[in-house]
Amino acid sequence: MLETISSLSLMQIVVLIIGAMLIGINKTAIPGLGVLPVVMLTLVFETRMSTGVQLGMLALADLVAVSYYRKQADWKILLRLLPWALAGIALGSLILRFIPTDGVVMKRTIGGIVLALMILSIIRKKVAPEKIPTGIGWSGFYGILLGSTTQLANAAGPVSSIYFLAMKLPKEKYLGCCAWFFLILNWIKLPIFALEGRVTWESVKLDLCMLPFLIFGGFLGIVLLKKLPQKIFEAIIQFLVLIASLRLLWG
Q1: Residue 66 CB-half CA count within 13 A
Q2: What stretches of the chain adopt beta strand conformation (E)?
Q3: Directed axis angle between helix 230-250 and helix 157-166, to 10°?
Q4: Residue 19 C-beta-side C-alpha neighbours within 13 Å
Q5: Nearest-CA neighbor of 160 among 62, 90, 250?
Q6: Residue ranges per domain, the chain?
Q7: CA–CA separation, 194 vs 213, rounded Å?
């Protein structure tokens, strides 16, 4: 594995380390933070390589998050969402296989969808702040959108933030739902990404080298979360979702 690291430039190594710590924090404290590693890795690695490396780090960080938040998830919410998300993954794979897509176009499309959903979510809170959207149609729409965006570009974080915030979950239960949801999806995606050539032995070795930094970032996130009031927690996520959607839209 040291040979793999030594083949990288200093900039690539620095970005990998910082990205790993941010992913750790993202998984245990601030879910919306995940957009930053996406951008950073894309800037220093080829697109296909960057998505594979990122997925490996996400999958490892999911294990850290679940080990801490394993008892916090609301399985009623997750079981409504997961079947639709799996259908979304299949849809994303179909799009990648049969429809030629440009990476920039796809990111802008996802960014536009996320921004529109965020605006609609704000409007819904103003019109019916006490109503929690739990219907099958709502779960189906968001589940398919989550699955397809995570399969296309590891970009489901902003969409999941909108959905789980709408459920009005306490921050620990919110993070427990995110931890279990993405653990399941990301580990299902790993063999699919391998078949698509996005996860390779080289990317796996890089991910394993980053494991200590992922764990350290996860620990920092746990410490940070204990000091964040619920309202500030939600405000930070909403702000990061906005930044993420704008970055994807005009990136």
Answers
A1: 14
A2: none
A3: 140
A4: 29
A5: 62
A6: 2-250
A7: 24
> In 10 A of CB 217, how many CB atoms?
28
For residue 181 the two structure tokens come to 């949801």
Q: Report if pTM > 0.70.
A: yes
Say if residues 92 and 147 touch (Cβ distance below 8 Å): yes
Q: Which two tokens stand for residue 137?
A: 């149609």
- Grade residue 251 by pLDDT with cuts at 50, 70 and 90: low
Residue 208, burial from CB neighbour count under 10 angstroms (0-12, 13-18, 19+) = middle
The pLDDT tens digits for 202-222 are: 999 999 999 999 999 999 999
Q: How many other CB atoms are found less than 10 A from the CB of residue 101? A: 13
Question: pLDDT by residue (tens digit) across 92-116?
Answer: 888 877 765 556 666 677 667 767 7
